[in-house]
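Structural prep section.
Before we set up the soaks we want a predicted structure of the protein with magnesium ion in place, mainly to decide which crystallisation condition to try first. Input record follows.
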Amino acid sequence: YAKKNGRNQFAFYFDELNIGTNRGLLIDHELRRAIKNKEFVLHYQPKIDLTTNTIIGFEALVRWYNETLGFVPPNDFIPYAEEVGLIIPLSEVIIEKACLGWLALERAGYGHIPIAINISSIHFHQPNFIESIQEILQRNNCSPRNFEIELTERTVMNNEKETIRRLIQLKQLGFKLSIDDFGTGYSSLSYLVQFPLNHLKIDRSFIQLIGSVNEKQAVVDAIIQMAHRLHMKVIAEGVEQKEQVELLRNMGCDMIQGYYYSKPLPLEEAIDYVEFWKLEIEGK
Ligand code: C2E
Ligand code: MG
Ligand code: MG
Ligand code: MG
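Run finished without errors. Recording the C-alpha cells verbatim:
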C-alpha cells in the first residue's frame, strides 16, 4: 500500500503500513472494529452563499479517533479502507451518521440546509450503490432532497455511459450533485457538462494562491466564467483569507467554503453556528 496524499504529518500510520507486521495488523484490526462499532464522528463545514449571505449547506467530513492509534486523518484511512475492501461498510456508516446529522439539524429548525456526503469512487461504482444509499436514507426517515453527493473528477471519468445513467438517476431521486476537487483530475468542463451537476468545487490548491500568483487567479476566473455559461454554480474550497473572499466575489464565485468562515465543526457546534449566523444577519 502506497501513501496517496503526502501532506499529512500523521500519514506514517499508513505510509509504511507493513501489512503483515504487528502494526499493520493492529491498524487493520482497529479499522474493522471501528466500522463494526460505528466509532466514527462526522464534522460539518458550512458553505456560504455570497449572493444571499446565507449558509446553503454543510459538508460532512469523517473523523476517527481511536484509543490505541489516536486521531487518524481521513486522507489516511479512507484510501486504506479502499485498498483493503472496507470502504463500502465504512461509507454506509458515514451515510447513516449524515442522516442522523440532518435529523438533528431539522429538529433544531434548520432542515432546509442540505448535508453533502463525500462518496468514494469504489462505492459509487458498486452495482447496488443507488439502492444502498436509498435504503439507508429510508431506514432513517430521510429524503434525498436534503442531501448532496460529492464526487471527485476521477470518479466520473471512467465508465462514461453507466456514470451518466447513474448521475441522472440520483438527480431524479432528488439528490444534489457536485464535483469535488475540480482542477486536480484530468477532465475538462466541456466533458463535465454532460452530467447533471449542481455545483463545481474548485480545489483548494487553486484558491490558496489566488492572491499572489496571477496565473492561478486567471485560471480560477476562467473556471468560474465557463462553469456559469454551462449553468453550474461554483464553490471555492479552502478559503482562508478575507482577501480571497473579496477576489472570489469580484470574479462572480457563488459560494465559499473554508476556514475563513469555519472549520468543520462537531454537530452541536454546527447547529450553534447556524444560530449564530442567523443572529448576525438579523442584527445587521
Ligand atoms: P474534501 O472532500 O475535498 O474535503 C475538504 C478538506 O479540506 C477537508 O479535509 C477539510 O477539513 C479541509 N479544509 C476545508 N477548508 C479548509 C481551509 O480553509 N484550509 C485548509 N487547509 N483545509 C481546509 P479533511 O476533513 O481532512 O478531509 C480530507 C479528504 O478526505 C476530503 O477532501 C475527502 O476526499 C476525504 N474525506 C473526508 N471525509 C470523507 C467521508 O466521509 N467519505 C469519503 N469517502 N471521503 C472523505
Ligand atoms: Mg468534499
Ligand atoms: Mg475537495
Ligand atoms: Mg480533497
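Observations: The first strand starts at residue 40 and ends at 49.
Flagged for discussion at group meeting.
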